[in-house]
Amino acid sequence: MSSSNRATAVSATVTGTTAAGHAPAGATTVAGPRPETGARTDEAAALIGDARRRIDDLDGRIIGLVQERMAVSAVIQKERIASGGRRVNLSREMEVLEHFREQLGRPGTALAMTLLELCRGRI
Ligand SMILES: O=C(O)C(=O)C[C@]1(C(=O)O)C=C[C@@H](O)C=C1
To answer: Where is this region: Disordered (predicted)?
Structure first.
C-alpha cells in the first residue's frame, strides 16, 4: 500500500467512510469504527449488540444445561460403580455420539465427545 493510500485508509477508518470518502449506501455514518462489534454504522452496531446479548443468554442456558447433564450423568455413574459396574458404558456412549451426529453432523460428534468428557472425565 502506498503512503497516500494508507493515509486514505486510516482517515476512512477514523471517519467511518469508505476509502472513496463516503458512507455505504443507506447507512448512518458513525464517528469512527466500533472495534467492539466491527460495525461501521450505528444501525449495524445496534443490531449486533442486541444479537450478542441473545447469544450470551443462550450460552448461559447451554452452560446451565451442560451442568445439569453432568449432575444426572454423575448419578448414573455412581449407581453403576456402587453396584460393582464400571464408570464407562461404551455402547451407551455410541448412542449419544450417534444422536449428536444425526442432528448436527460431524461437528456434533466432536461436541458429544466433549460433553462425555465433561461428564465422565478422560478415558
Ligand atoms: O448413560 C450412562 O450409562 C452414563 O453413565 C451416562 C454417560 C453420559 O454422560 O451420557 C456417561 C458415561 C458413560 O460412559 C455413558 C454415558
So the answer is: 1-40
